[in-house]
């Protein structure tokens, strides 16, 4: 009598588990999760930056600020000797094309400067002042910063501070409230 050759059920299940694990790792490593994860990463990066700047401000007894636009932000440092705000790094941090920032300072919506073509002197003067201040006393400007996808039904995240505590990332619901 001949014995039937083939795979047992256990062998098939082991192979399926291995393939499933490999597919899961491939999905995570290629970023198929989409803009939601990238948006969360951008928000976490911005909150982390504000936290580091707050610590630096207290330790170095210096004033820092963030200059914001709908598509980018830049860190500025106040130089007492010249009385000017100077960029800490050469370039703005650009957000992905599909993301945008909006900003409220002390409960008032602030129109962020766009990439409009302006007179160079006017643009330099406007660019040199940050909208969000991080003071050497450990205080921040009371703010609400929203980072979201440009499309209407896209994910929206909010970072806010009352001026004393560091911001946290919260998802904004359809009603416009963080939840």
Automatic annotation (TrEMBL):
Location(s), subcellular: Cell inner membrane
Domain General secretion pathway GspH: 42-163
Topology versus the membrane: Single-pass membrane protein
Transmembrane segments: 12-33
Superkingdom to which the source organism belongs: Bacteria
GO biological process: protein secretion by the type II secretion system
Cross-referenced InterPro entries: N_methyl_site (IPR012902), Pilin-like (IPR045584), T2SS_GspH (IPR022346), T2SS_protein-GspH (IPR002416), TypeII_GspH (IPR049875)
A GO cellular component entry from the record: plasma membrane
Alphabetical keyword list: Cell inner membrane, Cell membrane, Membrane, Methylation, Transmembrane, Transmembrane helix
Protein name: Type II secretion system protein H
Organism, as annotated: Pseudomonas cavernae
Gene that produces this protein: gspH
């Amino acid at each position: 009598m001949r014995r039937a050759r083939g795979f047992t059920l256990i062998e098939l299940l082991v192979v399926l588990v291995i393939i499933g694990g490999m597919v899961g790792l491939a999905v995570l490593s290629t970023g198929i999760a989409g803009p939601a994860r990238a948006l969360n990463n951008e928000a976490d990066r911005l909150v982390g930056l504000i936290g580091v700047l707050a610590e630096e401000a207290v330790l170095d007894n210096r004033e820092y600020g963030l200059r914001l636009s709908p598509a980018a932000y830049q860190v500025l440092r106040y130089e007492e000797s010249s009385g000017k705000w100077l960029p800490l790094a050469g370039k703005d941090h650009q957000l992905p094309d599909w993301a945008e920032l909006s900003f409220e300072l002390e409960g008032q919506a602030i129109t962020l400067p766009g990439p409009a073509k302006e007179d160079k002197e006017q643009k330099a003067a406007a660019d040199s002042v940050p909208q969000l201040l991080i003071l050497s006393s450990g205080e921040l400007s009371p703010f609400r910063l929203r980072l979201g996808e440009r499309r209407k039904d896209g994910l929206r995240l909010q970072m806010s501070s009352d001026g004393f505590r560091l911001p946290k990332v919260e998802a904004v619901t359809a009603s416009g409230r963080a939840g």
